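Example (one chain per record):
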Amino acid sequence: MKKLLLSILIVGSATFANAQKSEVADAKKKWNIFAFAGISQAYDKKMTALNDGLVNTDKAIANEKSKDLPEAWVYRSLFASAIAITDTVSEANSLAKQKIAEEAIVKAKALDTKNADKDNIATAEINIRNAVFGRGMRAYKSKDYPTALNVFEQMIVFNPQDTAMYLNAGVTAKLVKNYPKAIGHFKKVISLNSPDSRALYAEIIDMTLRELKDTVAGLAEVKAALVKFPEDGDFIGTETDIYIAKGDIAKSQESLSKLIAKDPNKAVYHYLMGGTYYKQALNMQDERKKIDSKKVKEFNAATAKMTELIDQSLPFYKKSLEIDPKFVPSLETLKQIYAFKNDTANYEDIKKRLDAIPAN
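Predicted structure:
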């Protein structure tokens, strides 16, 4: 009787072990079916199929006989990661399944010593990255920018060379007014030789000067931009503006004089040199507005200084038009100057030339 009972126990134990291994086989079968047809299924059917497969792996890893089978953890990572990316309804469930997938991947890698399942493990890792990115994009579209920023920075950890994620993080950081962080992310994009470097330098300079109001750092950013784009008129112009604001006109004119000497046939350089005088005139105009109308002598002195500065700017604007008769910035500025001087003939001539230029 005892011998018969022992035989029954042995057979029963083997049957139970095989049953647990069949959970792995069922999980594998269900994954293959899902991989073949699941993408085209309706949301509810996909979620049901994925959860059913995950239940098989729950049972497999709960048993001593199958808990160390690499495939039990591999398919667990696949099902859990697929749920994480598929479940766009419950962020909490998506995150919970992502955690399960991450833990399963660690276990699968440790057990899969022969790398037999490396492709499936890689698929699970890609699923996780896509799940994270999906949550970030949903947060961004719903204008939950702090969450989106956090997600995009998680994506950077997955791939530190992904310029798109640094760019996403920079844009989102700017939206939450975290300008230092936005600048840091944009600089990283530039360091990775992005074709958008010129536009990103412009963003960095604008945030530094306009939002952080840091002229010293702003000038440093302009100089960094000019190393990469030495002939960019906007960056040169911004550098000129900073020097003018600091009262260091000589420094600005020295820099522009070198550029003109190097390439005298660039209209933009002459235009910018004219600006070193004209912008001083505009600043003088602002100061003149503050003068009491009764102080005629002071008012007239300011007007005379304005006129002197404007007259000093004219040869440079005219030179730029000799080089390029359709250089709009110079035409626009001369139009303002001739209006100030009440020079109707030249004003009408410049206006006519501007009107003849097709709008972009």
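Caption: The chain has a mean pLDDT of 90.
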